[in-house]
Specification:
alpha/beta; six-stranded mixed sheet; 6 helices; globular; binds flavin mononucleotide
């Protein structure tokens, strides 16, 4: 059987930050179960905002007309069996890096459906406030739920926790363990497509 492909997308500018630490655990769990894992660090990549030209929505769709660092990412997203998105909460929602990436995923849909349809998704969020409500994590959670429901992808697991300084989340042993379990779950899951 072919190895499952998991694509991890890091949406924090902190490569060794809290959301990246959770993503590292997901990667570990997925690799333990035999998946190949590739990690993308959005910070520093040139990803422009969607310009709403809608060329990607025509049938046959042309894909995205913007020539930037999203271009190779589209192919990676198409090939992946599961996708993990890790983001800090910035101003009561996902980070701007993550939102730009999400907006540009619009181009994976056209007349014949969205390329992420049926894929498994894991969401990881960290925030400094004490809970998902006061931190604004709920807004990001709701956005991911709506977006992946809209395109027909399945959120296999959504993990979130409170931490401020980079790496602090590692002391949340329970959450770190759950992230590793999520990696295994994503690797085992069968896609509906
Ligand atoms: C620009 C900025 C905005 C932030 N906004 C929030 C916020 O709205 N709510 C919150 O609880 N924490 C907020 N934080 C704190 C981060 O979410 C928190 O430190 C998180 O653990 C960072 O994750 P990272 O290490 O993966 O970057 C903010 C931090 C920054 C730098």
């Amino acid at each position: 059987m072919a190895r499952k492909k998991v694509l991890v997308v890091l949406g924090s500018p902190r490569k060794k930050g809290n959301s990246a630490a959770l993503a590292g655990q997901v990667k570990k769990g997925a690799e333990e179960c035999g998946a190949s894992v590739e990690t993308l660090f959005l910070q520093g990549m040139k990803i422009s905002p969607c310009t709403a030209c809608d060329a990607c929505q025509k049938s046959p769709a042309s894909g995205c007309v913007i020539d930037d660092d999203m271009e190779p990412v589209y192919e990676k997203l198409r090939r992946a069996d599961a996708i993990v998105i890790a983001s800090p909460v910035y101003w009561f929602n996902m980070s701007a890096q993550t939102k730009l990436f999400m907006d540009r995923c619009y181009a994976l849909g056209g007349g014949d459906g969205h390329a992420l349809k049926g894929k498994k998704v894991g969401i990881l969020l960290t925030y400094a406030d004490s809970d998902p409500f006061s931190s604004g994590a709920v807004n990001a959670i709701r956005t991911f739920q709506d977006a992946f429901r809209y395109i027909g992808a399945e959120i296999t697991g959504m993990l979130y926790g409170s931490a401020s300084i980079a790496g602090e989340i590692k002391s949340n042993r329970d959450l770190m363990k759950k992230a590793r379990e999520l990696g295994k779950e994503l690797c085992r899951a069968k896609n509906r497509r």
